[in-house]
Amino acid sequence: MTNTNPEYINCLIVEDEPLSQEILESYIDNCPELKLCSTCKDAIQANAILHNESIDLIFLDINMPILNGIEWLKSLDQGFEVIFTTAYSEHAVEGFNLNALDYLLKPFSFDRFLKAVNKFMVLKKNQEINQSVTSKTIWVKSNKKSYPIKLSELAYIESDGDYLKLYMDEKPIIIHETLKHFISKLPNTVFMKIHRSFVINITKVEYLEGNQVSLASKMIPLAASYREEFYKAIEKNEQV
């Protein structure tokens, strides 16, 4: 059974070449934070493992019998991260288009393997920080009433003079407070100012188009003075 100790990263190897299997197994064995749950030679075996085990990270070969790694990954609802392993560099672009965490070109060294694993560690840490932050609740006053605001539901804040509109999953709440003062209550790892009148929850961003950010079905302007900081925050917050 999978080791459920949260300190471990539960790994799965999907690789049909015995030598490549042995190398990956050896590399994983030399990383105390990694736990190898199973090694599979094809997608059919891997499906069975995913059905019964909780996997965090898959080392996935692309050229395999029955179903190649890219086609197999397309068929799945991902609840894990993937690092592709292959001898053919031409697969890299398609692999990254599937949001693969990294791409290891065979033969790869232990140092290169560690760099890929470190990407997962950074991603995991950022996700844990975001989950901890957005699970919090703050209280605000509006029309002589107090309302609990879950930060996980707060998409963005719009400033209008001394008033703010707090946009969540439902209709906005209007409060009498300046944007500068309200920002001081928010965790800056998740909420950031992208315009003089707007602060957004970067975990709620749907897509970028030109100098605008889409979230909660609204296009919000991204001011030039905040652009560099915004892109750095997005890069840090993404799957890497």
Automatic annotation (TrEMBL):
Residues 138-236 form the HTH LytTR-type domain. Residues 10-121 form the Response regulatory domain. The keyword Phosphoprotein applies. The keyword Magnesium does not apply. It comes from the Bacteria. PANTHER family: STAGE 0 SPORULATION PROTEIN A HOMOLOG, TRANSCRIPTIONAL REGULATOR-RELATED. This is DNA-binding response regulator. It comes from Ancylomarina euxinus.
